[in-house]
Amino acid sequence: MTEPRAGVDVGWNHNVHHHPRLCRLLAGLPAPALDVGCGDGGLVAALRASGTPAWGCDPDHAAVAAAVPGARGRLLRGSAESLPVPDSSCGGVVLVAVLHHVDAALALAEARRVVVPGGRVVVLSVARARGWRDLPTEAADVLAHQVLSRTRGRWHEPPTARAEPTRTWAEEAALLQRHLPGARTRRVRLWRSVTVWDAPA
């Protein structure tokens, strides 16, 4: 739970906490990774620091202009529903807390379009709890947040808009399975899930 970040100090938040995991999942790609909805490029910088060539894209001009060191000159303007890159040009595509901001079906179709055969799509999702079955995980997330908030230093507020998720965890998993058949999804700490889909070679 106190795993260090992947070589780049951009502060801490619930998404940044998972950067080391995402860097591992996107290591050894056959082409550069693309971070969709990259904000100020914290994950792009972390990927590059871990040895994975990476670019980012975001529709928010202010976020791209505020690129962190390690991501400057590597961020493009573009939306998740219409990525500004050619077909089969990315070894990996990662979407971090993006799907609840956009048309998820279009965004996932775009991710599949731009990833190379044998590449990988990774999605870090946010969803909402529903019913008593989610209560133990919600309680564990609250505890993790309290512990990490005391140990991980300054909070990083991304320069991007916020939106509350509308899908439940079950609905999010079903959506991902429809558009990324065979994907593997698991819940992780801090109100997130990770989905991994490997494109057919």
DSSP strand count: 7
CATH-level-2 architecture: 3-Layer(aba) Sandwich
Kindly provide the radius of gyration, computed on alpha-carbon positions and rounded to a whole number of angstroms: 16 Å
Name the beta content range. 15-25%
**Which regions have little confidence, pLDDT < 50, spanning 5+ residues?**
1-7
**What is the total domain count?**
1
CATH superfamily: Vaccinia Virus protein VP39
First-to-last CA distance: 34 Å
Continuous helix count: 6
Q: CATH topology, which one? A: Rossmann fold
Molecular shape: globular
Structural class: alpha/beta
Biggest β-sheet: count, sense, barrel? 7 strands, mixed
Q: What is the string of helix and strand elements?
A: HEHEHEEHEHHEE
CATH class: Alpha Beta
Task: Enumerate the strands of the largest sheet in spatial order, edge to edge or round the barrel.
Answer: 3-2-1-4-5-7-6
The proportion of residues forming helix, as a percent range, comes to 25-40%
- Average pLDDT score: 89
GO molecular function: S-adenosylmethionine-dependent methyltransferase activity
Organism: Nocardioides bruguierae
Protein name: Class I SAM-dependent methyltransferase
Domain Methyltransferase type: 34-123
If you had to describe this structure to a student in words, what would you say it looks like?
The chain is an alpha/beta fold. It has a single domain (16-129, 155-198), classed as Rossmann fold. It is 29% helix and 21% strand. The chain contains 6 helices and 7 strands, in the order αβαβαββαβααββ. The chain has helices spanning 19-25, 42-49, 61-65, 104-114, 135-151, 169-179, and strands at residues 33-36, 54-58, 75-77, 90-96, 115-125, 184-188, 192-198. The chain has a 7-stranded mixed beta sheet with strand order 3-2-1-4-5-7-6, sandwiched between helices. α3 links the parallel β2 and β3 (75-77). The chain is globular, with a radius of gyration of 16 Å. The protein starts with 18 loop residues before the first helix and ends with a strand. Residues 1-7 have low confidence and may be disordered.
